[in-house]
Structures are given as C-alpha cells and as structure tokens.
UniProtKB/TrEMBL annotation:
<dbReference type="GO" id="GO:0009507">
    <property type="term" value="C:chloroplast"/>
</dbReference>
<keyword id="KW-0479">Metal-binding</keyword>
<keyword id="KW-0120">Carbon dioxide fixation</keyword>
<dbReference type="Pfam" id="PF02788">
    <property type="entry name" value="RuBisCO_large_N"/>
</dbReference>
<comment type="similarity">
    <text>Belongs to the RuBisCO large chain family. Type I subfamily.</text>
</comment>
<dbReference type="InterPro" id="IPR017443">
    <property type="entry name" value="RuBisCO_lsu_fd_N"/>
</dbReference>
<feature type="domain" description="Ribulose bisphosphate carboxylase large subunit C-terminal">
    <location>
        <begin position="111"/>
        <end position="160"/>
    </location>
</feature>
<keyword id="KW-0560">Oxidoreductase</keyword>
<keyword id="KW-0601">Photorespiration</keyword>
<keyword id="KW-0113">Calvin cycle</keyword>
<keyword id="KW-0150">Chloroplast</keyword>
<dbReference type="InterPro" id="IPR036376">
    <property type="entry name" value="RuBisCO_lsu_C_sf"/>
</dbReference>
<dbReference type="GO" id="GO:0019253">
    <property type="term" value="P:reductive pentose-phosphate cycle"/>
</dbReference>
<dbReference type="Pfam" id="PF00016">
    <property type="entry name" value="RuBisCO_large"/>
</dbReference>
<dbReference type="InterPro" id="IPR000685">
    <property type="entry name" value="RuBisCO_lsu_C"/>
</dbReference>
<dbReference type="GO" id="GO:0009853">
    <property type="term" value="P:photorespiration"/>
</dbReference>
<dbReference type="GO" id="GO:0004497">
    <property type="term" value="F:monooxygenase activity"/>
</dbReference>
Length: 160
C-alpha cells in the first residue's frame, strides 16, 4: 500500500474496486443491495523480508461473473485495480477458479484439426503474430505487413 494506508484497508479497497465499489459515492448505490456481489479480502499476510509488501487474499462470489466468459471474469478482477491510488504496486500471483465456474466454459467451437485443415498445415506447430502498431497503419501498409509476415513463414496474423 501507499505510505499511511493500512494493508487491511488497501486489501478491502482492491476487493471493492474489482467487484461492486467505485471511486466515489453514487446515488444508485441505495437502489440495490450489492452484498451478494462484493469481493472480500479475507486474509492479509506480510511478504517475508519486505516491510511494506503484503499478500492479500480476495474471494469473489460466482454471481459476480457472467457464466462462460473468461473476458468478463478477468475484466472484473483486474480491470481497474492496477492503477489504484491506494497502492504503490499490485501483482496478480494466483487465480483459483472453482470447478462450478470452470464447467460453464464451453471451450472452442471446434478443435485444432479444423484450423489445420483450413490452413493445410500439418505436423508442426502453427505460428502467428499480431501486427503492430495496432493503430495508425494505412490499409495499404497494414496489408504490406501481413504479406511480409505470411511470406516469411507465418501461418496467420491477427489484429488487436
């Protein structure tokens, strides 16, 4: 935490910000009970040998997350908290997903064989890249970058 911010307060703030909290009081807070969606910081441990560093354990109710959506889950957990003013630094070190939630993920609509068949590439890993910069290239220059990547041996490119 920042100097002067107790670790318990920083942990609770991270849990709140990544679930039902916001940086200010809003009038709509009184229109609903958010207790069932609140993240909870249930333990704080000091990092051995580090006077100002702590490990915060935060748990979230499954109702907070949209079923089958990895994007929703990660956006909820880490979306805003990494720039949080109560903290000097923050790192996600572990994420445990309960089987009840992981069972909601359907997986890809088809397997690797379909992709290999589309690309006519077999017997080796598929290799791709993301074209950078993600903004600012003209259509002509973007196409040139894609062409050079594929000409150089990549199997596919993607955009951000």
């Amino acid at each position: 935490p920042q100097p002067g911010v107790p670790p318990e307060e920083a942990g609770a703030a991270v849990a709140a910000e990544s679930s039902t909290g916001t940086w200010t009081t809003v009038w709509t807070d009184g229109l609903t009970s958010l207790d069932r969606y609140k993240g909870r910081c249930y333990d704080i441990e000091p990092v051995p040998g580090e006077e100002t560093q702590f490990i915060a354990y935060v748990a979230y109710p499954l109702d907070l997350f949209e079923e089958g959506s990895v994007t929703n889950m990660f956006t909820s957990i880490v979306g805003n908290v990494f720039g949080f003013k109560a903290l000097r630094a923050l790192r996600l070190e572990d994420l445990r997903i309960p089987p009840a939630y992981s069972k909601t993920f359907q997986g890809p609509p088809h397997g690797i064989q379909v992709e290999r068949d589309k690309l006519n590439k077999y017997g080796r890993p598929l290799l791709g890249c993301t074209i950078k910069p993600k903004l600012g290239l003209s259509a002509k220059n973007y196409g040139r970058a894609v062409y050079e990547c594929l000409r150089g041996g990549l199997d596919f490119t993607k955009d951000d």
